[in-house]
Amino acid sequence: MRRFYINPGNINETRAILTGPESHHLRVVLRLEAGEKIELFDGTGAIYQAVIRDIDKKEVLLQTISKQMAEECGPSVHFAQALLKGKKMDFLIQKATELGIEAIHPFTSLHCAVQPSYDKTKRWEKISIEACKQCGRPKPLSCYPVCDLSQVLKKGKSHDTKLIFWEKEKAALDLVLQTSVQSIFMLIGPEGGFSDGEVESALRQNFQPVSLGRRILRAETAAFCAMSIVQYLLGNFTHGKKSI
Ligand code: SAH
After folding, report:
1. In this structure, are residues 185 and 162 in contact, taking their beta carbons and an 8 Å threshold?
2. Pocket lining: 18 vs ligand 1, CB cutoff 6 Å
3. 206 CA distance to ligand 1 centroid (A)?
4. Does the C-beta of 193 come closer than 6 Å to ligand 1?
5. For 173-204, how does the pLDDT look when each residue is reduced to its tens digit (9 = 90+)?
6. Domains of the chain: residue spans and CATH
7. How many whole angstroms from 119 Cα to the centroid of ligand 1?
8. pTM (2 decimals)?
9. What is the pLDDT of the chain when averaged over all its residues?
10. 212 lines ligand 1 (CB under 6 A)
11. Which terminus of the chain has a lower count of CB atoms within 10 Å, N or C?
């Protein structure tokens, strides 16, 4: 069934109105018609089944027929990434959404080649919603504004497992991750890597250093590997109930 994002203010238990690009997509791109059933998600975890009742040039009027709340399950995975060049952050947000990451914390560090130009939070949220639409995830990831390394290290405090991926470390992920993990916060450096001093300050704040093997990976490769391996080890690559 085709899936669309709907603003939570535009839907209730009986009816819904699809507007803007989503209405355009339904009407012009997919050419759906009155009587057809679609799925709607509002980004809060609610998933609706709805029937198209009326279509005009601006909006699509729908009747909602059921509502289901996605259940939260499994440990929550937060991912902190040093800012990457060009479109790499956009790509990272898209992939992190597909891989079930709950929140992204972008940060700057000593060897970051880019500095934050303007607040991209809204843009990243939009990318995450698009990715949700494609992959069937009911809730986009939370995008936090860019902060610096010392601030991001403090954010780790509310998580029981804190990891820093470091190419000079030898400990493998499966040896470091405990089965009792509730909430995990992991850090990947920029293209230029972390300085030894930065790694030391992370270790002082109880981050565990982890390896992704003997090869030095590009930052974005390291990010996708880390997310995938962590999710696999935590059992988040199974066909469970619909969750974030
Ligand atoms: N410029 C550095 C490498 C940076 S790689 C150098 O040439 O030495 C970018 C980031 O990816 C690193 O900060 C680290 O977080 C992660 N990374 C890359 N390869 C890794 C590996 N083998 N093990 C753990 N982390 C790795």
Report:
1. yes
2. no
3. 19
4. yes
5. 988 888 789 999 999 999 999 999 999 999 99
6. 3-69 (2.40.240.20), 76-233 (3.40.1280.10)
7. 26
8. 0.93
9. 94
10. yes
11. N
Query: How do residues 19-60 score in pLDDT, each as one tens digit?
Result: 999 999 999 999 999 999 999 999 999 999 999 999 998 899
Ligand 1 mean position, distance from CA 107 (Å): 16
- For a substitution probing ligand 1, which of 114, 167, 215, 228 has the most ligand atoms within 8 Å of its CB? 167
Mean pLDDT over 103-124 rounds to 93
107 lines ligand 1 (CB under 6 A): no
Mean pLDDT of all residues in 60-66: 97
Cβ-count burial 137-174 (b if 16+ within 10 Å, e if not): bbbbbbbbebbebeebbebbeebebbbbbbbebeeebe
Distance 204 CA to ligand 1 centre (A): 20
Tokens 């391996």 identify what position? 229
Residue located nearest, by CA, to atom 20 of ligand 1:
167
Report phi then psi at 38, rounded to 5.
Answer: -135, 170
Q: Which atom of ligand 1 is nearest to the CA of 192?
A: 1
